[in-house]
Design goal:
This protein has 13 helices and 18 strands. The termini are far apart. Helix 1 (about 110-125) packs across helix 10. The strands form three sheets. Strands 1, 2, 3, 5, 6, 8, 9, 10, 11, 12, 17 and 18 form a twelve-stranded mixed sheet that branches. Strands 14-15-13-16 form a four-stranded parallel sheet, sandwiched between helices. It has a two-stranded antiparallel ribbon with strand order 4-7. The chain is of the alpha/beta class.
C-alpha cells in the first residue's frame, strides 16, 4: 500500500505517515538536496543471472515493520524501507568511484563483506573503480589506498581480520570529506560498530552540507551484537560457535579434577549476548554472568553459595563471564574514567579477579582446594574467518548496501530487521546500545538451562527481608515504648476508689 499523509524532511529524520498508524522512518536520498538528478535503467534487468527471478525489483512502497508481534487493535507501527534493487538508478557504472573502509575492532566476516562489496559492484553494476582505504578513518587522509578487484579479493573471505587494516579513532570529518572530494569518490561504504556509524553519520551530514553527489552507506559490525534495531550483527554466529571450543575445554578440565572449576571469559563490554548464546548453545555451563545482570559474591543467594552447592552436587562446574560483568565489584589502580580511542571505557580483567576471589574464599572459608582453570579466548574468537551462516549474511548485507547506493539512497545502514534486509537511518542505529533484557524470555531460558540463581532477584529479596525485619523490630520497639509509656502513665496517676 502506498504511504499517504505528511512527509517531514530534514537531514536527521525523514518520516512518512500513513493510514492506521503507519510510520515509515525513511532514509535520505540524493534528490532531497540535489535537484534535477538524471536516472538510468538498472543494468540488472539485462543480467542473465536475474532473468529467472519473478518481480526482482523492489516496489517503491515496500517496507518492513520493526515489530511483527502486534495486537488486533494496535497501530501498524514503525517501518523501515525494504532493501533491494530498484528499476531506476542514479549512477552510471563508468561514473562510480567507490571506496570501502573498515574501522574499530576485528570481527569474523569483515573480509567477506569487503569481497562481496567489490564483486557486487563489478558483477551486478559493472563498476570498475573501487578503492580500499587502509587503516580505518585516518586512512582517508594519512594512508595509501588499495585498488580492489574481484581477483584481489577472491580468497580473502577464508582469512580472519581485514585486508584493509583497521584502527580506532582518527575521525576528522572535514579532512575525510576533503579527501573524498579530492579523489572524486561518490560512493562510500563504511564497515564498523556504533561509534563508526556515528562517524559515518557525521560524514553524511558534511557531504550533504557541501551538496555533493556522494552516497554514504554504513554496514553494521559488532561482535558483541550491541547495535539496536537489527536482528543480529554479522560475525556474531561465528563468535558464538568459536566460544564453544573454549567452553568445551573448560568442561573437560573441570570434570577431570576434584572440585574442578572451568572459568571462561568472553567478549561483551556492555552487553552479554555472546556469553548468553554460547551458554545456551553449550549446555555444559552452570553459571553465566553478564553486565546487564549484577551479581554478588557473599551471603544467601550469592555466587559463592551457588559454587559450593554445584561442587557438592556434581564435583565440578563451568562458569562463563562476559568481560564487562561485575565491574562495579572491582577496585584497583585502573582509572574508571579512562577511555580508549573509540570512547569505550577501559575495563579491568574481571576473569583474573574473580578467579582469585573464588580461590581465596574456598581456601580460607571452607578449607577446600579448588582446581580452577581460567580460559580467555577473547582475541581468538574475533580473529577467525566467518562461518557458513555469517558468510551468507555478509553477502546479503553487502549486496543490499550496493543496491541502495546505486538507487540514490544515502545516510543509512544496511541491516536485517525481522528476517528482511532494510535501510535504517543512521540516527536509529546510534541512538542507544542493544543489551540483554533480563526480564525477557531468552534470559529466563538461560536461567532455566543453567539452574543458576537470578542474583538480582535474590539480592533484592534479601534486602527486602532485612528491611522487613528492621521494620518489624522498629514496630516492636515502638509498641514496647508505647506499652511502657501507658504503664508509666497509669502508675503515675492516683487511684480512684
Amino acid at each position: 500500500m502506498a504511504a499517504t499523509g505528511n512527509n517531514i524532511h530534514n537531514s536527521n529524520a525523514k518520516i512518512v505517515l500513513g493510514d492506521a498508524g503507519y510510520v515509515l522512518e525513511d532514509v535520505p536520498h540524493l534528490s532531497d538536496y540535489i535537484s534535477d538528478l538524471p536516472t538510468y535503467s538498472n543494468p540488472l534487468q539485462d543480467n542473465p543471472a536475474y532473468s529467472v527471478v519473478k518481480q526482482y525489483f523492489v516496489h517503491v512502497d515496500d517496507t518492513v515493520p520493526q515489530k511483527v508481534v502486534v495486537h488486533k487493535n494496535s497501530p501498524r507501527g514503525i517501518h523501515f524501507r525494504r532493501a533491494g534493487p530498484r528499476q531506476r538508478i542514479y549512477f552510471k557504472a563508468d561514473e562510480v568511484h567507490a571506496c570501502i573502509v573498515t574501522c574499530g575492532g576485528l570481527c569474523p566476516g569483515l573480509n567477506t563483506v569487503i569481497r562481496e562489496l567489490v564483486c557486487g559492484l563489478y558483477n551486478m553494476y559493472g563498476v570498475k573503480k573501487v578503492l580500499g582505504i587502509e587503516g580505518g578513518y585516518r586512512g582517508f587522509y594519512s594512508k595509501n589506498t588499495i585498488h580492489l578487484t574481484p581477483k584481489f579479493v577472491n580468497d580473502i573471505h577464508k582469512r580472519g581480520g581485514t585486508v584493509l587494516g583497521t584502527s580506532r579513532g582518527g575521525h576528522d570529518t572535514s579532512k575525510i570529506v576533503d579527501s573524498i572530494q579530492d579523489r572524486g569518490i561518490n560512493q562510500v561504504y563504511i564497515i564498523g560498530g556504533d561509534g563508526t556509524q556515528r562517524g559515518a553519520s557525521a560524514i553524511y551530514e558534511e557531504v550533504r552540507r557541501r551538496g555533493l553527489k556522494v552516497a554514504v552507506v554504513g554496514i553494521p559490525k559488532t561482535i558483541d551484537n550491541d547495535i539496536p534495531i537489527i536482528d543480529k550483527s554479522f560475525g556474531f554466529d561465528s563468535a558464538v560457535e568459536e566460544a564453544q571450543r573454549a567452553i568445551n575445554a573448560a568442561h573437560v578440565e573441570s570434570e577431570s579434577m576434584e572440585n574442578g572449576i572451568g572459568l571462561v571469559k568472553l567478549m561483551g563490554r556492555y552487553c552479554g549476548f555472546i556469553a548468553m548464546y554460547a551458554t545456551l548453545a553449550s549446555r555444559d555451563v552452570d553459571c553465566c554472568l553478564i553486565p546487564e545482570s549484577p551479581f554478588y559474591l557473599e551471603g544467601p543467594g550469592g555466587l559463592y553459595e551457588y559454587i559450593s552447592r554445584c561442587l557438592k552436587d556434581n564435583g565440578h562446574m563451568v562458569i562463563v563471564i562476559a568481560e564487562g560483568a561485575g565491574q562495579e565489584l572491582l577496585s584497583g589502580s585502573l582509572d574508571s574514567d579512562k577511555l580508549d580511542a573509540s570512547g569505550n571505557k577501559l575495563l579491568q580483567d574481571v576473569g583474573l579477579w574473580i578467579s582469585q576471589k573464588i580461590k581465596d574464599h574456598f581456601s580460607k572459608e571452607h578449607k577446600m582446594t579448588i582446581n580452577l582453570k581460567y580460559i580467555d579466548p577473547t582475541y581468538m574468537i574475533r580473529a577467525i574467518p566467518s562461518n557458513a551462516s555469517d558468510n551468507v549474511y555478509c553477502t546479503l548485507l553487502a549486496q543490499s548496501a550496493i543496491h541502495g547506493a546505486m538507487a540514490g539512497y544515502t545516510g543509512y545502514t544496511s541491516g536485517l530487521v525481522n528476517g528482511r534486509q532494510t535501510y535504517i537511518p543512521f540516527y536509529r542505529i546510534t541512538e542507544k546500545q542493544n543489551k540483554v533484557v533480563i526480564t525477557d524470555r531468552m534470559w529466563a531460558r538461560l536461567l532455566s538451562s543453567t539452574n543458576q540463581p537470578s542474583f538480582l532477584i535474590q539480592k533484592d529479596a534479601v534486602a527486602e527481608e532485612l528491611k522487613e525485619e528492621e521494620t518489624t523490630n522498629k514496630l516492636d520497639d515502638d509498641n514496647n515504648n508505647n506499652t511502657n509509656n501507658i504503664e508509666d502513665e497509669t502508675m503515675s496517676k492516683p487511684s480512684v476508689m
